[in-house]
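Module 6 notes. Inverse folding takes a fixed backbone as the condition and produces residue identities as the prediction. Think of it as a translation problem where the source language is geometry and the target language is the twenty amino acids. Below is one complete input and output pair. Work through it position by position during the lab.
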């Protein structure tokens, strides 16, 4: 039985850095991330210029039926023309590189935000906890002993 040639399926496991090539990863490690989500893969496909896509979040890959990882169904004609690729592997690599770039930029911006500290109006996060380690672990009580 021949498969449909007008659409291509992209599983999130194709971009999972935790999987080996023999277990189902189809892109090189430079184009893969740990634990990819369907939304992240869809965002990367949209960033690559692919507009005709459908999400199937409840789908599970035939070799991994225990995990509902989800798949993206792309129009083959749209995917090949927008990424200027000649095969599905080239489309996967383009999406994977954009996905990796997005994740590394998000981690870098999170690191910058954590160095900056909490926002100015957030009193709960800005409040400082007093350390009593210098006083031998005992706190001075308001009433009673001094």
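Target side of the pair, the amino acids:
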């Amino acid at each position: 039985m021949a498969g449909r040639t007008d659409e291509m399926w992209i599983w999130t496991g194709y971009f999972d850095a935790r999987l080996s090539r023999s277990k189902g990863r189809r892109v090189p490690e430079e184009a893969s991330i740990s634990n990819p989500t369907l939304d992240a893969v869809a965002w990367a496909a949209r960033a690559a210029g692919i507009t005709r896509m459908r999400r199937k979040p409840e789908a599970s890959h035939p070799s991994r039926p225990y995990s509902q990882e989800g798949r993206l169904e792309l129009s083959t004609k749209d995917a090949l023309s927008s990424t200027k690729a000649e095969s599905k592997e080239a489309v996967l690599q383009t999406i994977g590189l954009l996905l990796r770039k997005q994740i590394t930029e998000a981690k870098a911006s999170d690191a910058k935000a954590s160095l900056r500290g909490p926002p100015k109006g957030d009193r709960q996060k800005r409040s400082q906890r007093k350390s009593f380690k210098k006083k031998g672990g005992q706190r001075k009580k308001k009433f009673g002993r001094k």
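Reference fact for the lab report: Strands lie at 7-11, 53-56, 71-75.
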